Amino acid sequence: MSVEGSQGSTGRYRPTNSNDPGWDYGQPVDENRDHVKCDFCGHVSKGGIKRLKQHLVKASYKGTMYKDVRKCDKVPQDVVDVLRSFMEGKQKITEEKQSKKDEMIRNVNVYGNDDDEVEEVMIQIPKKRKGPMDAFVAPIDVDFRPRAPNSNENKKALENIHSYIADFFYENSISFNCTRSDSYSKMMQAIVQYNDPSTFKPPSYNDLRVKILKKKKKEETSNWVDNFKVHWETYGVTIMTDWWTDGKGMTLINFLVNCPKGTVFLKSIDGSAHIHDAELIYKMLKDVIEEVGEKNVIQICTDNASNYVLAGEWIMAESKIY
Ligand SMILES: [Zn+2]
């Protein structure tokens, strides 16, 4: 990483906008911000300023704190105090942020009871601010009255909701075109229809990145095949099949479906037991033809192996496929 920042009037390097006190006690080596040299003992920490701070405070901890970090034996106590309070403060803010987030999710309460009393909805969402962290969670005002759909309160509530949604778009630089997508209105409808706010949980960073993505990919593959199916009828298809044996001696038989709009991989069957068996290949081909729709199949391309040829002949014998 190259050095961005300034030497300032003190002649010391400090990254732009950084208030990290670590830079008062260490400086980059060879303009590399990841290699920070300790002012006190000269040790170079290769994990950036974070590592340097750990180097400086390590001696003040007992036990296995910062196990892999070399401790500084020349750092003065007052520097340790400054750094520890900065580091622990930062740690605390991260924990606070998380617990406020958790609390925010729990606080979404819609009191659905049978009284004629006016029900109130209190929702809190976190708001990102560049100021002190205690502003992280700002109370929000959605005072919805279910029994008075046209009331001024509800108009105001809706206005506020729009404003929160707008904040989300502005804060994260999301294209306004997204509001025209089906998924946008679907998402909103889905949230509104979910009737148990106490268990409502938005997807986390990790959910989006791993769990949901995996699931979607699987769905998409089958949707993708479905999209092609529409064209199969219009254009007719060629079924292509071949087989190959992997390093472990397993034989895979692949079936692909080609039409002028493109080729899809339909399936792969473990054919280890069948590959020399014309009758089984014939059966598998039959299944595939059925899956694709016999009327859509213009031709079948196969391997020239005799078992395939034979299976192909059987297929041709009983249908109009060439
Ligand atoms: Zn040191």
TrEMBL record:
<feature type="domain" description="BED-type">
    <location>
        <begin position="17"/>
        <end position="79"/>
    </location>
</feature>
<feature type="compositionally biased region" description="Polar residues">
    <location>
        <begin position="1"/>
        <end position="20"/>
    </location>
</feature>
<keyword id="KW-0862">Zinc</keyword>
<feature type="region of interest" description="Disordered">
    <location>
        <begin position="1"/>
        <end position="28"/>
    </location>
</feature>
<keyword id="KW-0479">Metal-binding</keyword>
<dbReference type="InterPro" id="IPR012337">
    <property type="entry name" value="RNaseH-like_sf"/>
</dbReference>
<dbReference type="InterPro" id="IPR003656">
    <property type="entry name" value="Znf_BED"/>
</dbReference>
<dbReference type="GO" id="GO:0008270">
    <property type="term" value="F:zinc ion binding"/>
</dbReference>
<dbReference type="GO" id="GO:0003677">
    <property type="term" value="F:DNA binding"/>
</dbReference>
<dbReference type="InterPro" id="IPR007021">
    <property type="entry name" value="DUF659"/>
</dbReference>
<keyword id="KW-0863">Zinc-finger</keyword>
<dbReference type="Pfam" id="PF02892">
    <property type="entry name" value="zf-BED"/>
</dbReference>
<protein>
    <recommendedName>
        <fullName>BED-type domain-containing protein</fullName>
    </recommendedName>
</protein>
<dbReference type="Pfam" id="PF04937">
    <property type="entry name" value="DUF659"/>
</dbReference>
